[in-house]
């Protein structure tokens, strides 16, 4: 049988060779729409549901305990989200209500309520929030399993080296993967921002998702080659292909060993240009991983996750504890806290944000917080209080004009005055910056530079707004490219404006962690690079192999080119000329 090459979405880099293990989860029992119970059966069904709820909660508790020990606090919080649903007053009581009032069977009630919530999440435009539907489906499977006394096959039962093949893996499946036996995995469905993909990257397990129906070609025991960077899966490779990929694995292992030395090294070019390598986090626990991976700062603390993980507006005290923990963990290294970036496509039920036709252009980020002054004031007070325990900096998102910045600074001044009046300490010299993610901000960066201490370029939104491309829309996603000449020009304008004012510029968008972008960002003079923790060592390594002078000459050439493809092709040629592997 000749080898087959399948293409999916590579979500966690690494190459592995192994036998296919087809992982089939227990199928959920189908329940007919007309199935109901009698009044006399209600009490027994409610008791059964309550028992399934408790069994599910206890099972999740055991998984969480194991994950905290083997993977980390942050990863455990993903599973805790399922526990939170069990205790959510809008979720489980609805299951009880269906049984009491509509006389649904236990199974039908669970399925109906889960489907209702899943549809809400799937309707959201934000990819991260859409993927939360998977967490609910995982919980549904768990509840139905206990309702029917079924034992689904567990990944912990696997005791041989395999490559896992599944229709999908839930977050609770993924965190139970033992890397001693499960070398990699591929799934039929899934996206880059799913919890499963995020966990795979965190746990450093090579993974491909979104393989589609091609995955059904694979049989139990087939030999597979998985390339988690390119998304290629080779089924039953021939001898020549096997030999080539074995050499690739050996090179990867050598590279990983070499990268470890960069944990304690600075990111300095061969001609002495030093940049700061930082990471993006969503909660304080991630700061520990950042330090272990060699982070020199937190370049972006996304505070919206604290709001999204709660079913109520976090209090000043709750926010203060989270920000303080991050600052203390970083032990004097900078922590840039972005004020709440919510609204539009990122929904919070308890904020009652109105639905909009164009959410990315609407009521979100700084526009929302300036409109809801008390919410903004509470967050700023919490950040200021935490600033006494570390090197915290404040960053305002989606600033598009000077008036917005002026109003934000007014609220900050009010927060400072309140704390001073109350005798509460805070860092009086705390630095203030803004996100450059709207073209209008980049175009008048000279004027903004006089009003702030730093810029952080958010390429994810800057590209979207500059090129008029909805990156969530698969029909036009091919147009989304931060190597577009217009985007590079806006980045150049921003960095040059900050330097003229004696300020510094960072970047916290996806471009900062892209190896291909390293020469152009050095050439443009970017001071601080913030990315996911797993990308830092590779980026550090590349910076130390390059000359700023050479990168400046290359960048001057790139800025004269007309298309993103021409720019990327020239960068690849530059790396080849300098004998540098990306």
Structural descriptors:
alpha/beta, 3 domains, single chain, Enzyme I, Chain A, domain 2, 8-stranded mixed β-sheet, globular, 17 strands, 8-stranded parallel barrel, TIM Barrel, Glucose Oxidase, domain 1, 582 residues, 46% helix
Strand and helix map with partners:
Layout: E1 4-7, E2 9-12, E3 15-23, H1 42-70, H2 73-87, H3 92-101, H4 106-122, H5 127-130, H6 132-147, E4 162-166, H7 171-174, E5 182-187, H8 195-203, E6 207-209, E7 223-227, E8 232-235, H9 239-259, E9 267-268, E10 274-281, H10 286-292, E11 298-302, H11 304-308, H12 316-330, E12 334-338, H13 366-371, H14 373-386, E13 391-396, H15 402-421, E14 432-436, H16 439-443, H17 445-449, E15 454-457, H18 459-467, H19 485-500, E16 504-507, H20 518-524, E17 528-531, H21 536-544, H22 548-558, H23 564-577
Parallel strand pairs: 3-4, 4-5, 5-6, 10-11, 10-17, 11-12, 12-13, 13-14, 14-15, 15-16, 16-17
Antiparallel strand pairs: 1-8, 2-6, 3-7, 7-8, 9-10
Helix pairs in contact: 1-2, 1-6, 2-6, 3-4, 4-6, 12-14, 14-15, 20-22
